[in-house]
Structure formats: C-alpha cells, structure tokens
Amino acid sequence: xxxxxxxxxxxxxxxxxxxxxxxxxxxxxxxxxxxxxxxxxxxxxxxxxxxxxxxxxxxxxxxxxxxxxxxxxxxxxxxxxxxxxxxxxxxxxxxxxxxxxxxxxxxxxxxxxxxxxxxxxxxxxxxxxxxxxxxxxxxxxxxxxxxxxxxxxxxxxxxxxxxxxxx
Amino acid sequence: xxxxxxxxxxxxxxxxxxxxxxxxxxxxxxxxxxxxxxxxxxxxxxxxxxxxxxxxxxxxxxxxxxxxxxxxxxxxxxxxxxxxxxxxxxxxxxxxxxxxxxxxxxxxxxxxxxxxxxxxxxxxxxxxxxxxxxxxxxxxxxxxxxxxxxxxxxxxxxxxxxxxxxx
DNA sequence: GTGGGTGCAAAGTGTTTGCAAGTGT
DNA sequence: ACACTTGCAAACACTTTGCACCCAC
Lengths: 167, 167
Hints:
The structure is a homodimer. By secondary structure, chain A is of the alpha+beta class. Chain A folds into two domains: about 1-95, Orthogonal Bundle (Arc Repressor Mutant, subunit A); about 95-165, Dna Ligase, domain 1 (2-Layer Sandwich). The first copy, chain A, has seven helices and five strands; from the N terminus they run H-H-H-H-E-E-E-E-H-E-H-H. The first copy, chain A, has a three-stranded mixed sheet with strand order 4-3-5. Chain A has a two-stranded antiparallel ribbon with strand order 1-2. The relative contact order of chain A is 0.11. The mean pLDDT of chain A is about 85. The interface between A and B is medium-sized, with 33 and 33 residues.
C-alpha cells in the first residue's frame, strides 16, 4: 500500500465520518493514523498500544468503538485466523478479494488475489443455488524458510521482540 | 454421512480413546452419540443441550473437555464462520476438503468439494513459495429461498425453534 | 448549546480450570 | 487401588456497555 493510497484511505474515512455527521476527535485521529500507517494485520489490543504512542489518552473502549466504524466504511476488514482474537486487515479497501496464505510455523501472512479463483468460486456458488456475496480463502502452509531450514526468520524475530517487550 | 459411516466414526473414536488409555464414561458416550447422530454444524452450547437429552448429567465442562479430543482424533473439525462462537463440523473425517457456503440471511450451510479448486490452490501456494498444508474456503452468499422470496425457509424455522425453547 | 464522544469500571459472553468427590479399568 | 473424569463455580480473555463528564461543531 503506497503512501498515496494511505492518504486516500484516510480521506475516505473522513468523508465517511462527515457523511454520518460524526465528529473527528483527537482519539479517533490517533487511531486512524495508526491504522493507515501499517500494512500489517493487527488485533484490537495492538491497535490500542500503537495508538497510545500517538495519543496517550486513547482508551480501550474507544478503540473497540472505532473499529466498527472502520469496518462499516469498508477500509478495514475483520479476518479470522482461528486464533482467539479477531484480527483486522488495513489493506481491504484496495483489495477486497481477501485471500490469505499463512505459515503454520511463523504466522507469516501473504495476501493474494487470483482472477481464476474468483471465477471458479462464482461458478461453484451458482451451481449450488447461491448468489455469491463475499468469500474468504485461507491457506495454511509452510513458508520457504521453513522448508529449507526447518525454521522461519520471522519466528526468530517475533521471539526476539517478545523478549524485548517483557524487559 | 450414512449410518455405517457414523458407526465407523464412532468406533474410530473408541480406538482413539483406548489408544491414549482414556476412559469411556456415560457422559462421553452421550456426547459422542450426539455428535455422530447429526450432520449439522453445531456450537458447544448446542452440543451440551442435545447431549443432555441423552444424559442429563452431562455438564458444560465435560462438553468443553471432550471437544478437543474429538478434534485431535480428526473426526470433528473446528470451523469459524466469523460469528462469536466456534462451530464444529462432524463431517470432517470423510471430507477433509472442508469448504462451506453460507447463506447470509438464514445461516444455511452447504458443504462442497471441488477438484479444480484444490488444484488451483495448490498452484497458487507453490507460486508464492509455500507448501500447502490445509485450506479453508468460506463463501458468504444468499440462498435460493432468499433470492426468490426475500426470506429463507430456514430462518423461519430457526425463529420458531427459539420461541419453543424459551417457553 | 447540544448531541455525539470519551474514559472508566462494571457487565457480558464464550471458554477454561482448580478442586473435591466419583468411577472405569 | 489408582489414575482418569466429573460437576460446580470461580477464573479467564476478549469485547461491550452504562454513566457522568467532555468537547467538536
């Protein structure tokens, strides 16, 4: 997601806010700046932590109250990796196709789109008597690192970060 | 899932239990009888209710403690429809391909498999440098009822059941 | 000024767990 | 007899909500 795309997304959110005659507050500002500054998937708790770096006054409640707005405005989407918490994906606005491939070992996530896949899904839906609205494909796999070396760069890094946090 | 298949699944679970030197209790019996008596997807709470019809002494704790065994034995799988609770699928043993199409309105679920889809997923994974382990495709759609009549048979029925429950 | 927004803490919801008593093998 | 199981209720983790104060418009 380029810098220009991020700015576009942010201004689209401002339009959305205005359209519903909602207000732009410092806390919402901090939260949306945070959301549109990352390409990564995040949890509500991470979003809280990161937003607090920008504005210490952001509360957990406000994060949880802002997330539905981001989802309603279709700039962020909920994704479910079968972990306990919900994850949020800030790249949705540009790429509604929404497929993920996840490394079982290091949780590395790669997003992808595929025209042929989309067509096939449409065809299957019709055959079963449904009219496709949205779809979600998740592939669980092992990444190249793991196949070659039996371990993932990503995982080492995550462990290191965790250690740093708990200090 | 035929009656014979269900019996097979049940006996496979008994083997699994025995292999781990676990015990067959009246409560587990009631729970697995319930699981292998349905083709439907269910939640932990539904499984509790249904199991209690067979054996009133089944507790919520036992249901939650038995579900992981069913999953570990690969006879049931967890599915995530993005609702708040986890759902469980008793048809997994026979059909590990595991794709679902769900009506947005009535939550009707149809399972399907597709060879072409499986091949395409494999190809995409390779192209991205991953080695596919498992996959999960969920299509959200509207069912024929809804398209034709703006409402679903299924939904009426569910509402009726709910009313009956609360009496 | 007013209606929406906020933080806080309490309440919810679905799931897990510690414990003392019970039971299959 | 022993280790595995159970029900109960308390504990958990994540999310939502009621309330009194606050602030963007």
